[in-house]
Amino acid sequence: MSRFGDATEIRRIAEGRYEADLDGGFAIGDALNGGYLLAVLARAAVDAAPHAHPVSTAAAFLRVAEGGPAEILVDTLKTGRTAATSRVTLVRDDQALVEALITTGTLEPDTEPSWAGAPPAPALPPYEECLTSGSGEVRGRGFADQVDMRFDPATMGWLDGQPSGRPEIRGWFGFTDPYEPDAYALAVAVDALPPVALNLGARGWAPTVELTWHMRALPAPGPLALHGSGRLVTGGWFDEEVEVWDSAGRLVAQSRQIARVGRKA
């Protein structure tokens, strides 16, 4: 199994109870990436359900989660022929870290979309023309070491102190350790981009408070194209939407989150 596969492994210890060893290598600073945590919770939700895919997830991030042992509690709220819904809670030391409502279903790989429209404009530049995340060059950077991301240069001016003034970031996503896209990779992809508020002059860590994402199709092998954008920054809060498109040009995931603007240094 790949690093990501091992890092999201769960162990069923009783009905509705699972153990996990959260991998600190997926942290940004001390806090584990939210998408990584949702991938772990999704594995538990799917294991406890009669359906194969986490088609809808709405999660509240209550406390910072760090690497180490944790427990996952799955409370099945409804089970149906086409969908099942569970309350899934990540717990450590009797404290809830993440609370999620996850609906599972089964998506068929050969289903053709009735309508999706074109990817968001402007188009993401070819993979080889994008800026590398630098993974493999300097180790010990946590989450950045686990993913292979290539960013649209037009959305990365904030790195040089020249933010574009538009809340948007685009890039390609994959893992440094080979792992083909699946439902759990999509959970990470929707929360993998740097905060779009950085292009409005924000700095520092921008903690996600609530994130909702939907799996729309089974992704084809290859890198995923991420299009992140926002609508409003006000009162220390900002929103962010991400669309994930696979190598076959299909919309495979969508997300929306509300987060706190990072504090300036």
Keywords:
4 helices, 265 residues, 16 strands, mainly beta, two-stranded antiparallel ribbon, single chain
Order of helices and strands: HEEEEHEEEEEHEEHEEEEE
Please, what is the average pLDDT? 94
Strand content: 35-45%
Question: Helix count?
Answer: 4
Broad shape: globular
Structure class: mainly beta
The total strand number stands at 16
Q: Low-confidence parts lasting 5 or more residues at pLDDT below 50?
A: none
| Main sheet makeup | 14 strands, antiparallel
Distance separating the two termini: 40 Å
Helix content: 10-25%
What oligomeric state do the depicted chains represent?
Answer: single chain
Estimated radius of gyration: 18 Å
Task: Please describe what this structure looks like.
- With 265 residues, the protein is mainly β.
- Helices cover 11% and strands 40% of the residues.
- It has helices spanning 3-7, 34-47, 143-146, 183-189, and strands at residues 10-14, 17-22, 27-28, 31-32, 53-61, 68-79, 84-92, 95-105, 131-132, 147-151, 168-175, 208-215, 224-229, 233-234, 237-245, 251-260.
- The strands form 2 sheets. Strands 1, 2, 5, 6, 7, 8, 9, 10, 11, 12, 13, 14, 15 and 16 form a 14-stranded antiparallel sheet that branches. Strands 3-4 form a two-stranded antiparallel ribbon.
- A hairpin with a 2-residue loop joins strand 1 and strand 2.
- Helix 2 packs antiparallel against helix 4.
- The radius of gyration is 18 Å and the shape is globular.
